[in-house]
Amino acid sequence: MAAELVRGQNHPLTQTRLEIRVSAGAPVVAGATLSDDEGRVLGRDWVAHPGAPALPGLEVPRQAAADHRLAVDLDAVPEAAHRVSVLLALPTGPGDPDRFGAVVAPFVAVTGLDGSEVASYTITDLDAESAVVALELYRRQGAWKVRAVGQGYAGGLGALLSDQGLPDARALAGEIGEAVARGLARTVAPPPPRTAASGSSAMADATGAASHASSPGTHPPAGPPRSTQPPSPAEPQSSPDPRPAHEPQPARPSGQTGPVNYTHPGRQAPAPPAPAPTAPPGEPGQPAVPVAGDATGWSMDERLYNQVWGMFEDLARCVAAYRSAVDFADSRMEQELDKALSDPRSRIGGQGDAAREAARAKHGHLVDRAREVLDRDLAQLAAESAVVEPALPPAYAGWDNPVWHAYRSPMEIPMALRLGDLQLPESRSVGLRIPMLVRLPLERGMWIDSGRSGADALTESDELRRRALRSAVELAARLLAVYPAGEFAVHVIDPAGSAAGALAPLVRAGVLVAPPAAGVSGVSEALARLTQRVDLVQMAVRGGAADALPPDLDTAEQLLIVNDFPHGFDDRAVTRLRYLADEGPAVGVHLLMVADREDAAEYGPVLDPLWRALLRLTPVPDDHLADPWVGHAWTYEPPNVPPGSRVLEQVLEEVARARRELGI
């Protein structure tokens, strides 16, 4: 069965000789690029376009047309090429549309040589873009896959090719435009617009000219990819329409020529992708000035995600290098001291003192040099953090970021969520904290440990429980806020009703699926309901019958907050809880436990798998996150709402408003 892809989705390819069929509402230029394992197009001979339509294993049409067929033989693609990107662009001739938002959404299909469809993709949400990467065929572990990309560029082919690393991208884009113009000059001229005096013969002429210009048979015979990071726009998108980008365009009145606007009148168009910023050069001998989003990626959010984790890796590496240098200095000093003391003649008198003093001086010099390098790296990272932090979107931002004050319910799920901050002891001198980002959808549940920790053993147990509950509420609010309205739901189990005060913001805003479940019967009912949902979705997915789910089943991601565990839980409830922790994340059901690990010790080894399956977080800073990469123990700091701030209530009010508009 053919796969209907959505943006970002991939599908395996079982054939290597394929056709890529393109159907658009207006003439478009079709081309393709080959790129290496780092996503770079190494030269012009890796670009197939109307002026040079054939490459090894790849062939594209010579003319602009509304329908295209591209021939692909993946076995013939050079070994150095790891990705084949299929490109579409609008011609630049007079009278041609200058943006994809003015034409029908292009449709792209990957088929076998017999015409059987393997995968298809309709490229939606294009507006001011005049060039787009439609699909990419990429090699992964010896096998080929197809991914729906749909990344548009307002700067046209020049911006697209430049983003793929082609050195003379603008010049080649101009040559492609000239080749398309020459191809159009050789075709039959389109007929004049039909007037009221035109008869059926005029309609026949127009139909014939259109079929001639778009016929696949007019294309000559045609025969590379990018890194795992998808391409990113190299220029900001701008629309010639003076109205705001989010304002719906009017539909075409009766009798008016031109393309029909298919934009939903009640839906806001997504903001155009941000440009790829570049760091301005620094002073001679100094590092470049940091810029937010100065990293590889597709959208600005992905660039910032990559930049944040690049900062994490840089901090881990520079601290590891500093600690290694100090260990080396300590070891060398010990060796020199042992050598000096091993000779009885040097243990007495000034000769021994001089040797010991020289060893200590050399040790101090090595440590000072290592510290200078560390301080330089920390200062650079702190400067980068100061630029990146204010530019983060809500999903990555702390509660003190002003971006929350302009928060509106999003239209798309972000790629990651901020769970807190990470810090190392050496970075505290410059106040450097790295956002702790986890990919969405969540792959595992979380356990907010309300017990005492080694880092904060003096805090009272009741205060720790209050902080843990507050952290759970803030995390649930953050998840509700970063998902589109109606695509995330929150349930609460509070057996004794002890969390009523902390849960008040969620209850007042009306964003919970149901009131918090209390008592043994409430716990059992809530767990049974979510367990049944997991079973139904699992059976539907495994049986390939996702459309057979009950119509009243909520397909949104589900979060279950469990407070005061294990009070109110019998053996059956504990078994269901473990089942949700193990099987739930794969079908969109996630756990958020709020409990003291010591309180659950009475269950012994029964709960050990549950404890290990969940990500442990703490309501107070604690250095419990181990880093197997370089052996660091990272200090985790929870993302607390600033004292006295109403940002949490304001965000939940906006979430509730968006849900009411959808009738939820």
Number of strands: 21
Beta-strand content: 15-25%
Quick one: overall form?
Answer: globular
Q: Residue ranges: pLDDT <50 for 5 or more in a row?
A: 185-274
How much is the average pLDDT? 81
Distance between the termini: 34 Å
* Radius of gyration using CA atoms only: 31 Å
The chain-level structural class is alpha+beta
The major beta sheet can be summarized as: 12 strands, mixed
Percentage of residues in helical conformation: 25-40%
Q: How many alpha or pi helices?
A: 11
Give the SSE map.
Layout: E1 3-5, E2 10-12, E3 17-35, E4 47-48, E5 54-55, E6 58-59, E7 65-73, E8 83-89, E9 107-112, E10 117-122, E11 131-140, E12 143-153, H1 156-163, H2 169-185, H3 200-214, H4 300-342, H5 350-391, E13 416-423, E14 434-439, E15 446-449, H6 461-482, E16 488-493, H7 500-509, H8 519-542, E17 557-563, H9 571-583, E18 589-595, H10 608-613, E19 615-617, E20 622-626, E21 633-637, H11 647-661
Parallel strand pairs: 1-10, 15-18, 15-19, 16-17, 17-18
Antiparallel strand pairs: 2-12, 3-4, 3-7, 3-8, 3-9, 5-6, 6-7, 8-11, 9-10, 11-12, 13-14, 13-21, 20-21
